[in-house]
Amino acid sequence: MLTLLRKSSQKPVNYWRNDRCARAFWKQHELPAYRQLLEDTIRSLRITANSNWLDLGCGAGRLSLGLWNRSAGEVREIIGMDCAAVNANAFAKLQQQFAQTSQTKVIFQHRDFSDGLGSDYHDYFDGIVSGLAIQYAEHYCPQTNKWTDKAYDFLLAEVYRSLKRHGQFVFSVNVPEPSWGAVALSALRQLPIQKNRLRSLQRLYRMYRYGGWLKKQARQGRFHYLPAETIKEKLARIGFKHIDFQISFANQAFIFSCEKG
Question: Which of 7, 40, 222, 258 could form a disulfide with 243 if both were Cys (CB 3.0 to 4.6 A apart)?
Fold first, then answer.
């Protein structure tokens, strides 16, 4: 099992930023539940030619690829931003693929979005998409020795600042107390048709193990698996309009869609 906390006075380790954790989720697109989530998210996007997009918490770039495919390669720029530097390798492959068929500019940025999106993107993006990522914005208060939602709220405000007027924000987050077992069960049903069953089981176990750690941290307030109404209130307070959501990912995630007012 994972060692949950380092026995020191330092801030507890965050496996979400770890390269091994990032690699564990690279193949999650093979899971039926994730494929559903990916399709539902991409279907919600309003993509226009020559538009600039941010894939926030991009991972291996599956949403970036889906965004590019749906636009028929006509978007101007896709920036993938992630706290795990190893994901630059996955984006390098996307860059090569896109360069062969379109002029889309593809960039990877290694950044901890708990600290914001940077000063370069005020009113910059036509759309921002994020898959099961923003809920991991974290802030620890040394005065109270508690985790808070300060970084989560700050990140939502940063997204708003970085969007153009009427820019779209589509993101998925886990429901409160998500059942990783339900996600695993949906994958096990397809295991008999997998070419390499042992490797598929190993990947599934890694994701299940990390998922359990993430849920335990969320119970402590470090991460944010929030009710839909709470998320709607946060978005509306910042200024987002036309807020809507659906459920996906074997009923373990919300997909929110809204736009900058």
Answer: 258
CB 22 within 8 A of CB 84: yes
Per the CB < 8 A criterion, the answer to whether 170 and 45 are in contact is yes
Q: What is the mean pLDDT of the chain?
A: 85
d(CA 55, CA 171): 10
| Contacts of 59 by beta carbon, 8 Å cutoff, 6+ apart | 22, 25, 26, 82, 84, 87, 90, 131, 133
Query: For residue 82, which of 36, 166, 25, 142 has the smallest C-alpha distance?
Result: 25
Which tokens go with 44?
């919600």
Identify which of 221, 225, 224 has the alpha carbon closest to the alpha carbon of residue 144. Answer: 221
Measured from the Cβ of residue 186, the count of other Cβ atoms closer than 10 Å reads 19
- The separation between CA 128 and the C-alpha centre of its own chain, rounded to angstroms, equals 11
125-148: average pLDDT: 96
DSSP E strand stretches across the chain: 52-56, 77-82, 105-110, 125-131, 139-141, 146-148, 163-174, 240-248, 253-260
Q: Which two tokens stand for residue 173?
A: 């987050």
pLDDT of 227 > 50? The answer is yes
Domains of the chain: residue spans and CATH:
15-260 (3.40.50.150)
Residue pLDDT, tens place only, 47-60:
999 999 999 999 88
Q: Which helix (H) or strand (E) holds 211?
A: helix 197-219
